[in-house]
Structures are given as C-alpha cells and as structure tokens.
Design a protein that fits this description.
382 residues, alpha/beta, TIM Barrel, two-stranded antiparallel sheet, 12 strands, globular
C-alpha cells in the first residue's frame, strides 16, 4: 500500500500500522481502559444527520474562520500532540510545514520533540498553539510560560484533563516508555520494522526540548504514564489557572472542558477559548463524547468565548456537523498522526488536502457558501 492509495482516515491508519513498530502504533491508536469513549467519539457523529439545501449558487465556497484571534483558511487545525518525532523523524517540522501550506494553525506540546523557537523561525506567519501541562514545580511552569511568550506563540492552550495519566493498557502490555525500555514482545515488533528503526537511529537524536532542562528523561526510562502521574500537579485548581491567564495576558484556551459549569468558569477567569474534548478517549474512559456535549456548552457560553471541539473527526461531514452546532473550529489529532507516521510531511499534506476537499465538496452539497451559513437548521438528531 502506498500513500497515493490512501483516500481516507482508515487508509492512513492501515498504512501507519504497516510501517510502525507495534508499540508505537498502539501508542497513537490506543486509548484508556476498554476504549469505549474512543469509539464513541466518532460514533456520536453517526447519530446526527445533515439536511442539505439545493439551488443556492455554490460555485465558490469560503472555508475560512476566525478563532482565538487567528484567521485560518480552514475550519480545522492540527492539535498539539506529544513525541511526534517518535512516529516519523520529521515530526513537528512536517506538521508545521503542512499547516503553513494550508493556512491553518498547528500546535506544539510540552512533550514536543522540536523546540518552539525553531518552529517559530521556520514558519513565522503561521499561528502556533502551545499545549501546556501544569507541573508540580511552579518555577518550571513560569519558565515555560515565559519561554513560549518570548518565542512568539500566539495561543496558550492549557490541558486540564490530564492531571494524572489515563490507564492506557496497550502501552502497559508492550512496556512502552521514553526512552525505550520495552519487554521482549515489544522489542520483537521493533525488529520487524527495520525501515523505521534505521530512520530513527540515523536522524537527529530524540529529545524533549521543552522539558530537557528541567525533567530527567535519560537517566532511566520515564514512561508517559509516569510523567503524568509523578510530575504533573493533581492539586491544580481554578486559582492556578486564573494566575496563568493573568501572566499570559493574551489568547488563552483550556483544553479538556466537558461540562457547562467548567465552561462558565473559564469565561469568568478571562479565557478566550475552550476545547470541548475528552482527550481522544485517552484519559477517562466512559466520559461523554465531545460532540454530544457540544450543543449545551455552546448554548451556555458560545456568545462569550470561542468554543472549539476535538475528538473523533474522520470526515469532512464530521467537521460540518460540529460547526453547525456552533463550534468555531475543530481540532484533528490521529487524522494527521497516522499519515505523519506513514509518510512524514507528504503524508500530512495529503491528509489535510483530502479533508479540505471533502469540506469544500460537502459545503456545496449542503447548499452553503461560507462556514457562517451552517446552523442547527441543517441538522436532525435521531
């Protein structure tokens, strides 16, 4: 199977599975516990039908949106995700370049594998989000905040649903950690994928530059699970976030909001955006799907704050359904990670191009020429 033969999310996933060692594929693909919320994230869109209009003159459509003060050519962006150069040696370089080409926003994680400054210099006109994890070390938090501001990051995105790690049993079974400390079953799967191993060993050394001055990742395996459990602060509360909002004094977004009460509190402390998200099903299994929560949150705060959604996006019609409910934009994660893992920058560009084409075609079939014309009149729930 080649990249050119990939026509949708499922094709990219299949190609990534062929090219990645099993433990790394499972790290992208897996979720918490029984992965119920993971599956529900996409299934929730299937309970909602689109009602198209015809004869509306749709020769040209405008897919642009303004979200958190940023003008985007597309109503979706590349959500910040961890350890991207583990999936493909180009990592965040590939994602940033693809986002720049398509005129959308990209995110860099606290667990990113390329430093903020390098990406900012390479793509100065492309809006950048920094996904921030709140650590027990308050000095580290302040230093990371100041570094992001100095680098010119446009949007601070604090992840609030990860004060401890989810139970990702696929990683437990393979012994997945960073640096690698795999069990025998995991090591055998690496041997079976020599192309990935060659690229990993012959390119830039793997590191976590946002953290390497503060967190020892080399003196013994620091698993992702241990990072969340031991270094992040479960005592984080609204007063801590309010202080961060004040210190940042710019576009500030909370990622992982799922209740109306929390959405209202985000408005009260001065946030400019929230992401309705259950972390791709990777944290609390059994939590409600973000799409199912979207309408009530938009109804409560949508006129006061930018409401974004992520989780389960696999088609252009999924994007249009979320926008019709009132989301200002949607974030994609696995949708670009699978093609990144399979083919680097070329894979991400191919995936973003397909999603753009689907959205443009689906807007025409819906009888709308701009995102603003999408409303709940276009939807019916079963």
């Amino acid at each position: 199977m080649r990249l050119a033969a990939c026509h949708n999310f499922h094709d990219f996933r299949a190609l990534a599975r062929r090219r990645l060692p099993g433990p790394i594929f499972d790290y992208i693909d897996g979720a918490a516990d029984d992965e119920v919320s993971y599956r529900r994230n996409t299934a929730s869109f299937e309970q909602c039908d689109l009602v198209p209009n015809v004869l509306r003159g749709v020769a040209r459509v405008d897919t642009s949106v303004v979200v958190m003060g940023q003008k985007l050519a597309l109503p979706f962006y590349c959500s910040p995700t961890a350890v991207q150069r583990l999936f493909h040696y180009q990592g965040e370089h590939a994602v940033a370049a693809a986002a720049a080409k398509f005129g959308t926003l990209f995110g860099v994680s606290s667990l990113g594998t390329v430093d903020l400054e390098t990406l900012r210099r390479a793509h100065p006109g492309t809006p950048q989000v920094y996904q921030f994890y709140f650590h027990k070390d308050r000095g580290l938090n302040r230093a990371m905040l100041e570094r992001a501001k100095a680098a010119g990051v446009e949007v601070m995105m604090l992840t609030v649903d990860s004060i401890t790690g989810g139970n990702r049993e696929r990683d437990v079974r393979t012994g997945f950690s960073i640096p690698f400390r795999l069990n025998l079953a995991g090591l055998a799967q690496f041997v079976a994928k020599p192309r990935w191993a060659w690229n990993y060993l012959t390119h830039e050394r793997f590191s976590l530059p946002q953290l390497d001055q503060h967190v020892p990742m080399d003196g013994g395996a620091m698993s992702i699970s241990r990072y969340f459990t031991e270094l992040l602060d479960p005592a984080m509360a609204w007063d801590d976030v309010a202080e961060m909002v004040r210190l940042w004094s710019g576009q500030f977004c909370l990622k992982g909001i799922m209740s109306v009460a929390d959405a209202k509190r985000a408005v009260e402390i001065g946030c400019t955006g929230i992401v309705v998200s259950n972390h791709g099903g990777r944290q609390l299994d059994g939590s409600r799907a973000a799409f199912d929560q979207l309408a009530e949150i938009v109804d409560a705060v949508g006129d006061q704050i930018d409401v974004i959604m992520d989780g389960g996006i696999q088609r252009g019609t999924h994007v249009l359904k979320a926008l019709s409910l009132g989301a200002k934009a949607v974030g994609i994660g696995r949708y670009y990670l699978y093609p990144l893992a399979a083919a680097g920058q070329a894979g991400v560009e191919h995936a973003l191009g397909l999603l753009r084409t689907e959205i443009e075609r689906d807007m025409k079939l819906m009888g709308v020429t701009s995102i603003a014309q999408l409303t709940r009149d276009n939807l019916r729930f079963r």
